[in-house]
Write a structure and sequence with these properties.
This protein is of the alpha+beta class. The chain has three domains: 175 residues, Formiminotransferase, N-terminal subdomain (Formiminotransferase-cyclodeaminase, Chain B, domain 1); 162 residues, Alpha-Beta Plaits, CATH 3.30.70.670; 210 residues, Formiminotetrahydrofolate cyclodeaminase monomer, up-and-down helical bundle (Four Helix Bundle (Hemerythrin (Met), subunit A), Up-down Bundle), CATH 1.20.120.680. The chain has 17 helices and 13 strands. Strands 1, 2, 3, 4, 5, 6 and 7 form a seven-stranded mixed β-sheet that branches. Strands 11-12-8-13 form a four-stranded antiparallel β-sheet. The protein is globular and about 80 Å long.
Amino acid sequence: MKQLIECVPNFSEGRDPQVIQQITDAISAVEGVSLLDVDPGKATNRTVVTFVGEPAAVIEGAFQGIKKACEVIDMRTHTGEHPRMGATDVCPLIPIAGISMEETAEWARRLGERVGRELNLPIYLYEAAASSPQRQNLADIRAGEYEGFAEKILKPEWKPDFGPAEFNAKSGATVIGARDFLVAYNVNLNTTSVRRANSVAFDVREKGRVLNDPATGKPLKGPDGEPLRQDGWLKSVKGIGWFIEEYGIAQVSMNLTNIRETPLHIAFEACCKSAEQRGMRVTGSELVGLVPLSVMLDAGRHFLHKQQRSSGVSEAELIKIAVKTMGLDELGPFDPQRKIIEYNLAANDKNNAKRLINKDLRDFADVTASESPAPGGGSISAYVGALGAALATMVANLSSHKRGWDAQWESFSQAAETGQRLKDALLRAVDEDTDAFNKVMDAFGMPKATPEEKAARKAAIEAATKGAIEVPQRVMRLSFEAFPLIKQMAEHGNPNSVSDAGVGALCVRAAVHGAAMNVRINTAGLEDKAYAEAANAEAIRLAEAADQWERDIMALVSARI
């Protein structure tokens, strides 16, 4: 697996598109960097940029972005609603795939050292890359902001980790680090009062609020002299209230620093609860930057469950429910292809348009019918299996919504979620089968002039052939896994759709048999006879068992028709 990290630098310019363009051009010019999102804010006068790639490329892109920001942004004239301390205010690195947090933190240190040395910029490390526990929290480092930094940097405890310990009036200072995925999230209120927005923020954020003496209104202090606090409702949430002149509303601006501990939908509902208790109403919300797909899917499922509706629907429907419930499109359109990381990466993948599952039905049938050997029986088996699982899912969803069956909605919802999982996995296998076939052809095309080349070619063919066996094996197992679901729907599902369950059983049986044939034909040329024997035995066993499942289901279907 490739090592992938995400970088989300925040630049202190959100109003001048030419300045922003110069910075993003510097980043995207680095080979190996995929620029995913550029999110400027006029009121905050701040732009959040998101890009991903392998570590070395991302570090180079981050350096070039910071360098250009030093050239084109002058902090002496900067104003905005958001706390900030430099032209590049903060530059976090986030591990995405194949890399640990410790490794990511080391890349952050390398970036910090280079920026401090080459750009003569004071650099502070935070979160996982922090040089001491006192510097882990971004808010602590940034306290006093740009205006107070000339005095702060002279204090021994605030000597920079890299770069000069002197105030850079034009560019300020930059905080670089490594952290978990953070969701920047703003909730819109039907008020213009920053004080009331702050009251909601203090309710929900983890650090809560400072307790005041009712008689004097001054902060209460504990034995250690520190202010006493009342904890907020949500873990791993930072938040403040502010007024956004551009929209004419106050917002609760939050950073969700651990979305496993406090998911997006929980933060939204906590703000709704607090606002209602204080005589206000949440009117919508906005995401700053990108989010993982799982965040939106979890939110969609949560809100469907609250409605006692099946959550076994498509990704697109779950996202739609999440967007509409949280009002993520109130201040502007919410484009999943741009705002969701996985979709954004796929959109930037040049090979994505060639994927079979992105073709319409006619194009898929036409390319299958062409003289090309792929897609062939393996891809078709996977697709037929996906259709069988989809039919079972349809029956589950219809049953969940059937009048008079309200008490059973949750069990049918769980069944539909299972069907969606199987359907999606089988759809992925449509292209995986063709990809595996192409790897076999590539291996056969390797040079074989020397003994070394012949040995390398032989090993590559063996490895690629096993890969071409593993895909139909997975199709067999996934398709076979759909039988209990289909039987459940044929026996207990909506009686008006029992024939659909029957067709699903026929599709799944065809998928198991088709994939089994692909396994058996690909094992014929393997050198590893033990592997081939085990794969063939499983293929025969599952094909025979599929016949029995189909007979049992069709008997149930016939009895109910």
